[in-house]
Write a structure and sequence with these properties.
alpha+beta
């Protein structure tokens, strides 16, 4: 995914919505977005803090279930 791809994917949502990262398909964890940096020719999005576990609907919509 490129920066342009990510921007295009996010344009369909209201700009005031919060963003979370979902990890671990078997038990999706909900993480805040941490620092964003450029290194090695790529943009890196760091994880912030864990907020808990993502609802089952998240796994369904991400195609993990």
């Amino acid at each position: 995914m490129t920066v342009a791809d990510l921007i295009d994917a996010l344009r369909r949502y209201p700009p005031e919505m919060e963003v979370r990262l979902a990890t671990q398909p078997r038990m999706p964890q909900e993480l805040t977005v941490g620092a964003i940096a450029e290194a090695d020719g790529m943009v890196w999005i760091g994880e912030g803090r864990q907020e808990g576990y993502a609802p089952d609907e998240v796994a369904d919509r991400l195609g993990w279930s």
